[in-house]
# Entry
Amino acid sequence: MTDCLFCAMVAGDIPADVVHETERTFAFRDIAPQAPTHVLVIPKDHHATAGLLVGADPTLLAEVVAAAHAVAVQEGLATEDGPEPGYRLVANTGPAAGQTVHHVHLHVLGGRDLAWPPG
Ligand code: AMP
Ligand code: ZN
# Structure
């Protein structure tokens, strides 16, 4: 999609600190990290939100979640079969949640204790 920051990063037109990639997913470090690990995981295809993605291509949403878990394992936030020490997946959706980039992305946050409820 034109005028989409994350599509431009997938295309290589804007630099990304890539930490994980599959045929259909892409993961890179957030430019303004909110935790010691802060990675964004996206589908390479453009979909605005998780709700639109799951309607259009549910398998791809599953691939994004699997990629997010793989990133967490790679970053030492979990093991293949266990959730220790733990991490958080966040999908800000719409203006009330503060979504600023309208290409669906999972934030993978970890490396410190994460407060609940979030802000
Ligand atoms: P959200 O507010 O949930 O839409 O998240 C968008 C995220 O994209 C924010 O955490 C930004 O810090 C991050 N971001 C914006 N531009 C870049 C960039 N060029 N490289 C990496 N992350 C970015
Ligand atoms: Zn896009």
User: Anything to note?
Assistant: The chain has a mean pLDDT of 97. Helices lie at 5-11, 50-56, 58-74. The radius of gyration is 14 Å. Residues 1, 4, 6-7, 46, 103 surround zinc ion (ligand 2) (CB under 6 Å).
